[in-house]
Specification:
By secondary structure, the chain is α+β, with helices and mostly antiparallel strands. The chain has one domain: Heat Shock Protein 90. The chain contains 3 helices and 5 strands, in the order H-E-H-E-E-H-E-E. The chain has a 5-stranded mixed beta sheet. The longest helix has 20 residues. The radius of gyration is 15 Å and the shape is globular.
Amino acid sequence: MNPRHDKLESLAGFLSRETQKQTEAAGLRSRLGIAENLPDWPVPAKVRHHIYLVVKEALHNAVQHALAREVRLTFEVVGTELRASVADDGCGINAQSPEGNGLRNMRERMEAMGGRLTVEPLSEGGTRVMMQLPASCFERPRL
């Protein structure tokens, strides 16, 4: 993670490129839904790092376990909340399965920042991992 990705727009671009790299390497399609005109919120290093690792794990799960053909990354601000998701068209998540380390780690990362992580099966098949982070995560620490 590079400090030059310290605004939402540059972080979204970085995550888009990473998504495309991972899906292309696995022979999957990717669709990107990055909102235009993202706010000029600064993204502290710790927040950048947590978001990146959650997206990376969600992509890994889609590529390695979901038998997906396509992965979608979305990144938008709704009100005062960042919403980012990774969704696939694979076999879906089994609600009866115990949560593995990857899902638990993603959830803990979001909760440590005051955010929320939801993992849900999609009605058309596949799974969506949704991160929701309040705007307060993007404030620079006061010295």
